[in-house]
Amino acid sequence: MHTKELIERTQNYIILSNQHNLPLIKILFADDATYHSDFFGEYKGGAAIHAMMLSFFTRFPDAHWKVEEYRSIEDNGVEFAFMMTGRDATSGKSVQRRGLERIYFNSDGLIKHIAVYKPEGDG
Hints:
It is built from 3 helices and 6 strands; from the N terminus they run H-H-E-E-H-E-E-E-E. By secondary structure, the protein is of the alpha+beta class. Strands 2-1-6-5-4-3 form a 6-stranded mixed β-sheet, covered by helices on one side. A hairpin with a 5-residue loop joins strand 5 and strand 6. The chain is globular.
């Protein structure tokens, strides 16, 4: 896949995430996809990832990601820094969270792995 197409697929994932469009997000993932988050843990398989996202959007009903720049990386991947904002429905507190995300695609253009990292220095 070409860099432009990978970046466009990643941008689409962020747009759908900001819309909280879980049905369309779900079909972006390969059935055997994996998801690692320094914030929320490890998930294996499309069904487990979808369940995690359902829980996430219930907890953060107004979650929104801001991304300034997308960069192509090895292994059909795209990397970007983000700022996630929202209100935690369990505590009522506003959340502002920075991170680094890497999304990797398989040869069919489906997401095969996502890795989300806390910024260095954050506990």
